[in-house]
Amino acid sequence: MSLPFTVNWMASSAKTEYYSAVSPILSTEIHNVKSGRHLAAKLGILVQQHYNLASTTVTGIPMKEEQNASSSANYDVELLHPVAAHAEVFKTGVVNAEGVHITAVKEGQLYETVTLKWCTPRSSSVELQYCTSSFRITPVDVNNRPSSCLTNFLLNGRAVMLEMPRKSGSKVLSHMLASHGGEIFIHTLGTGRSILEDPPSISEGCGGRVTDYRINDFGDFMKQNRLVPHDPKQERIDPPIEMAKKKLTRLTQYWPLVFSHTTIFNNASQIGPLLQLITKETLDANDVAECRKSIFGLVTSENKGLPLNVPTISTRGKGPKREEHYRLAWNELEAFVRCHCTTAEHQSVLECLLECRKPNTDGEGGASIASVKVQLGAQSPSHSPSKKIEKSGRDEKEFSRSYDSDAKDTERNKNFDSSGDSSYKYHPAKKLKLSADILKTSGNKSLLSLWTDRLTTEHEKRFVEFAGRINGNGPVKLYPNIKCEGNGDG
């Protein structure tokens, strides 16, 4: 057969399709399909594609048998409706959350259908459901008995709740079937929290108790990053929205959500001006002087031995607790200042901080955000045993070297006394000298392991250990002298 227009051949997954554009507003397609049930399935696909429809199969509909009214059986009814009725379910991620797939391809069909279970609701709670949208529906097979029974059931003023299949747990009602004015609608129900409900408790998050969150600081942070209309007369290199994004990115490089993951923000009374001024885009001479004053104040508190307000973190086996607190504070403060070094004034504040803090003896350069999060326990709970062992070994080496550097600390105190303000001059407090052996024996060991090591050490001083109990890398020979001369016939 000759066609009055040009035909473009297009391969399809099922059959060959012939597509042609007659005009900018008209196109034609020719599909080659077998007759019978294949024709009905193909028509179903074309209808869904043309009208942007989706399929929902209601399963488990209880119906009485025609021949035996005393018994009942469960039937399935397939419905067609706009595809937007499933948008809420797929957007919230409830679908396939437990490995139960609600989308499937039924036998004899070429398209997917969403399977939902029948759930008869209480008549008093039908009008109280939180509905987000509603769409008209039509049964795929209008004339069969299950479809007609469901249609009559809904037109008589009844409602049907549809729940998603789950392996365990409570029901999740996602849709509702009801009629209004002689037309049947499918209503999309909110599976998440309603805007009319109270917000969830903040204690349900990853931070723990409500008092641990930096709620007031976060409120101030939101006020600083509000979007306001800009003056179109001012000439800018970057658009205002891009400048706001850059500022937000810079301020959120390091911003702990809870107090237990930070040290410097727990001591705002000492270094508060530095934490507020360093986040500014530009600093003047007075701002730099205030930042240097905060740094000198922290050095004063450290050398006087004043305690810091620190979170409840484990510092066992890492030297004196107060020294460890100040080490974490200096590392965190350095990483925080480095995030905002955008001008020469910011760089001068960083140089002052590096000159005033204790010498870094770990040999790893400056502090980074990742290392600070690891030290303060603010990283995700995916700690491998190898990383823990490596970290504990590095900490022991670090503290053993830090307590051998008394000469460097003395030189640092002298430089500070000669260059600092007269109001901050003082005599450094005496340090508690501990041997490296004592520090190495603690580590991240339990009380049982420490007691066992002590008993083993005392036992080795008095007796010779049996060869079979000596720790080694390979198999132990139980009777090494059994074939030696003078040991009998064995």
Automatic annotation (TrEMBL):
Keyword set, alphabetical order: Cell cycle, Cell division, Coiled coil, Cytoplasm, Differentiation, Meiosis, Mitosis, Nucleus, Spermatogenesis
InterPro entries attached to this UniProt entry: Cell_cycle_regulator_Mat89Bb
GO biological process, one term: cell division
Family statement: Belongs to the Integrator subunit 13 family.
UniProt-annotated stretches for the region Disordered: 376-422
Subunit details: Belongs to the multiprotein complex Integrator, at least composed of IntS1, IntS2, IntS3, IntS4, omd/IntS5, IntS6, defl/IntS7, IntS8, IntS9, IntS10, IntS11, IntS12, asun/IntS13, IntS14 and IntS15. The core complex associates with protein phosphatase 2A subunits mts/PP2A and Pp2A-29B, to form the Integrator-PP2A (INTAC) complex.
Extent of Basic and acidic residues compositional bias: 387-415
Cytoplasm is among the record's keywords: yes
GO CC list: integrator complex; perinuclear region of cytoplasm
Pfam family of the protein (one): Mat89Bb
Primary localization: cytoplasm
Subcellular location per the Swiss-Prot or TrEMBL entry: Cytoplasm, Perinuclear region; Nucleus
PANTHER family: INTEGRATOR COMPLEX SUBUNIT 13 (PTHR12955:SF1), SARCOMA ANTIGEN NY-SAR-95-RELATED (PTHR12955)
The name this protein goes by in its record: Protein asunder
